[in-house]
Amino acid sequence: MRKGIHWTAPSFRPDLLAIGILILRSFNWGDFVARNVALVAFVSFALVSVLWSDFPLVSFKRWFRDLGNYIVILVVLSDPRPLEAVHTLLRRLCYLLIPLSILLIKYYSYLGRAYSEWTGAAEYIGAMTSKNMLGVVCLISGIFFFWIL
Length: 149
Description:
The chain starts with 13 loop residues before the first helix and ends with a helix. It is 66% helix and 4% strand. A hairpin with a 6-residue loop joins strand 1 and strand 2. It is mainly alpha-helical and 149 residues long. It contains 7 helices and 2 strands, in the order ααααααββα. A two-stranded antiparallel ribbon has the order 1-2.
């Protein structure tokens, strides 16, 4: 059963690209760790929790993927103008995801629709993985575009 569009190519590694960008920007890791002790403690706790997991290899892979998300976020926040970088990122994502979701739902329904595991009813998912994520993207897009008016 197909649940949505997933990027599964093993050669696409945004976390490695993000590390390269942070190195080029001369990102100060010591200052970041000193200012974000709670985040570092949380990520460290998540790493230590791999030790008592029933499936340590799977847990470590998930931890590493989660760490990659934080590193990619650091690329946006380490920009010389971070508020403008977040604004640009949100605007581009909204301009991409909303029309793409409409296109998938309307013209490529086999890609933009999934079926409920419980009831079997059709659910519109667009370019997301679930109907709830489509709702979240629409909500964030609406709030964002209302905010920039």
